[in-house]
Amino acid sequence: MMGVLNHLSTLLLLSLLPPALSHVVEKFSDVKDCEKFFLEGTTPNLPGILVGGTVQDQNRYKPICQFYKDRYRFATLHDTTNRIPVFSAYTFTGKVVGRPSQSWMIEPQLEDLKKQPDMKVDNKAVTHQAVDTDYENNNKHLDRGHLFPCSHALDDAAKRSTFTLTNAVPQNEKFNRGSWKTMECRVRKYLVENCKDNNNKIKAYVVTGAVPSKSNTLKNRVNIPDLMWTAYCCYNNNLKQWVAQAHWSKNVQDTNKKTLTPETLGALEGELKNSYKVDGFQVFPKNCPRTVILSVLEDETGRNLEGVEEVEPGKKRGREGSGEGSGEGSNKMARTSGELKECDDEDGCDCDCDEK
C-alpha cells in the first residue's frame, strides 16, 4: 500500500511541474517517433560516448526524446557530469518568425524526485543538469545558448520546446549574438531554399553539439564548452543527390566582422577527432557526402548558381573569419537557384530568437 501511495505522490508531483520535456530513454531507437530525428534512424557515432546507437557510459550520458505538449520535438544526448548536452538532433521542415515568451525548463526524469521534491528550475539541489541560477548574474558574460535553435522551429509549440536547459550550453554572449546567430540564420535560409525532397517538401536533418572543456565551468557546476559545432544533411531535388554542410567555432568572444565559413562534413568529423583525441566520428550515415559541399557560385554574368564544390578530404574549405572560400575545387552540376541573401532585418531572418 505504501508503495502505491509513493507512486501516486510521484505522479502528482510530476503533474504539478511545468511542461518539461520528460522522456529519458536507454536508446533513441526505443521510441519510434524519436528515431525520425536521425537520418535513416542512425544516430551519430561518437567514440567513447555513443557507438552504434548504444550509450557507452549509461550512468553519465542520457538520451532524451524531447516531448513537449502533444508530440516529440527533437532528441538530445545529455551529459549529467558536465550538466550540458553532447548534441541535439532535429529535422528542419520550415520555420515561423518570432520568439515566444517562454520560461526555461528542466528535465525532471534526470533527477531523484524522492530526494528532491522541490523541482523548481532555480533549485541548486538539481544535480544532473543546469538551472537558471547557474546563468543568472554570471560574471563571465555567458548566455544559455540553444543547440536546437528556436529560430529553426516550425511552429510556436516547437519553439517553446527548445527552451529546456538540456538543450542549452554556456555560450559566450557576443559569440551567441554574433557570428553563431548569423550562421544559424543563413543556414535556415539555405535549408528552406535548397533542402527539398522529391515531393518538393522542405526536409533536412540537423545535429548541433558542443565539445566540453577540461575544467572551465560556470559557477563550479556547468561545463563551459570549448567548441560549438553543427551540421546538416538533406536531399536536394534540383541536384538529385544528398548534400551536407558544417560549421564550427571556438566558444570565445567574437572578433569584428567574424564569419563562420561553411565547411564539409568530413572536415567537421576531422575537427571532432582532433578535439576529442580519438578517431571514428560519424555525424551522419555514409550517404551524406564528406568531401563536397553545396555552395553558391557565380557565372560570368554574376548570376548565382547552386552547385557542388569538391574539397580535399580532411581540409577546411575557407579561412574562418574571412567569410571567403578557398576558391579551389570543382564546380559540378551547377544549376540556377534563388539568391541566398545575407541575414539582416529586411530578410525577415528573426536573428534574435535564440538570444539568452
Q: Can you summarize this structure?
A:
The protein has helices at residues 2-16, 32-35, 132-135, 156-161, 173-176, 179-194, 265-276; strands at residues 50-51, 54-55, 61-68, 71-79, 84-92, 142-146, 168-172, 204-211, 217-218, 222-223, 227-236, 241-250, 292-298, 304-310, 318-319, 324-325, 331-336. With 356 residues, the protein is an alpha+beta fold.
Explain what this protein looks like in three dimensions.
There is one protein chain. This protein has 356 residues and is of the alpha+beta class. It has helices at 2-16, 32-35, 132-135, 156-161, 173-176, 179-194, 265-276, and strands at 50-51, 54-55, 61-68, 71-79, 84-92, 142-146, 168-172, 204-211, 217-218, 222-223, 227-236, 241-250, 292-298, 304-310, 318-319, 324-325, 331-336. The N and C termini lie far apart (46 Å). Mean pLDDT is 81; it is low at 1-21, 297-305 and 319-350. Residues 70-274 form the DNA/RNA non-specific endonuclease/pyrophosphatase/phosphodiesterase domain.
Strand content: 25-35%
* Fraction in helix: 10-25%
Low-confidence stretches: 1-21, 297-305, 319-350
Q: Please give the number of β-strands.
A: 17
Order of helices and strands: HHEEEEEHEHEHHEEEEEHEEEEE
From the N-terminal CA to the C-terminal CA, the straight-line distance is: 46 Å
Average per-residue pLDDT, rounded, comes to: 81
Major sheet attributes: 6 strands, antiparallel
Structural class: alpha+beta
Radius of gyration: 20 Å
Characterize the overall form: globular
Helix run count: 7
- The neighbouring-strand order within the major sheet is 3-4-5-8-11-12
